[in-house]
Amino acid sequence: MFVCIFLIETVSMIYLHNKVVHSRINQELESLKSRGNSHRDVLEISYDNSTLHHIGLMESHTDTDVVITNTKGDILLSSEKVNSGMKKILKKDLTQVPRKGLIIQSSWKEERYIATVTPFNSDKVNEGYVYMFKNTGDVEDLISQLNKHFLFATLLLLFFMLITIYFLSKALTRPLITMKEATTKLSKGNFSVSVPVRSKDELGELAQSIQSLANELNYLKKERNEFLASISHELRTPLTYIKGYADIARRKDLDIPERTQYLEIIHEESKRLNSLLDELFNIARMDVNTFTISKETVPLSSFLQSVYEKVLPAFTNKNIQLNLECKDNLFMDIDPSRFEQVLLNLLDNALKYSNEYTVTTIKATESIGSISISIIDQGVGIPRADIPHVFDRLYRVEKSRARATGGFGLGLSIVKQLVEVQGGTISVKSSIEQGTCFTIIFKEKKNEDSSSS
């Protein structure tokens, strides 16, 4: 940053210096020409020896010199002795000189004088030229003073630029150093970092992004630990049953009915363990995007009717009324087998957590550009604090993980992924002792045949 600003300042100062010097030289030349024009006007009004003497006397007390010649080049007046530098200028060809005057030498670096010439014509006999000279040594002294001012201004600007760069770099690097330290901690597995957001610019956005990343990684770390702990618990329970009852079944003094009973328990626990592994395998497949989805256009009414008939006996057996509400002209792009898995899982939850003589409803409604399918029950409900986490893996509202109160806590996680992978969204609303409503929303698929007819 310092180098860039220094280069910009250097180029700007050089350009400004050249412009100021050029402007100052032009002012000197215009001043010379103006004095020559003034002397011309006096000569044209009153041309005599006293006028010439008066002009010479005036210029002898200034830093400029005047030489007046006739048209033949003869010197009529000189305020100073004519030297070689003046003679060189006086010998220049003056075929056409405008009345307002002419700059005949402007190179102050290479020549001894800068000079202008102005023609005068008081009558037909008395005519000639007024030459004005200024020693370039005086001009160089002027430029030297100007250079000193520029050098002082440059050093002053450089000083303030260094101070500004110092504090600006501190202001920029301090949050960057803080963010570097935070990312170093993140790389070492310490996700409980805090990155202060001190501004609303790009640095502030970067700090906020790092803080969000740290929070997300910290959450994932905790979720992973909870996931491993829950998996360990879920695996340990059936394995403990299998090992315990297998040891009992191996006893030689056990009669056949008891051994059969223990073997049946071992069989059930093996099925439970296999079911858990299947669900974990499905989640793993969805995480690596190897879960195949074959979507097709499905008439929603007949699809929901088949699901309704499949689960109706279970609801009837528990004395729960199951209703289906769906119009006939609704169509959706879904994977029928995967979406049936979603509905069966939600209906199984409704059956499991609803009491006798309640009502569960499968309801499909159409709104502008979308179709929603809701599973509404009158069950025990979900506490408000648990609602944001019901789709988390291995999360269960009933924390004891008792075998009689549900599955593994993977069903709703799989449901959410199956819905989202098919382009839908799922949400839940619930109140304690009033029931739960899961709502799935898909973009509507128009039936081309019906629309064309």
UniProtKB/TrEMBL annotation:
Domain Histidine kinase, residue spans: 230-446
Localization per record: Cell membrane
PROSITE patterns hit by this protein: HAMP, HIS_KIN
Keyword field: ATP-binding, Cell membrane, Kinase, Membrane, Nucleotide-binding, Phosphoprotein, Transferase, Transmembrane, Transmembrane helix, Two-component regulatory system
Stored SMART domains: HAMP, HATPase_c, HisKA
GO MF term set: kinase activity
PANTHER family: SENSOR HISTIDINE KINASE CPXA (PTHR45528:SF1)
Name this protein carries in UniProt: histidine kinase
Species classification: Bacteria, Bacillati, Bacillota, Bacilli, Bacillales
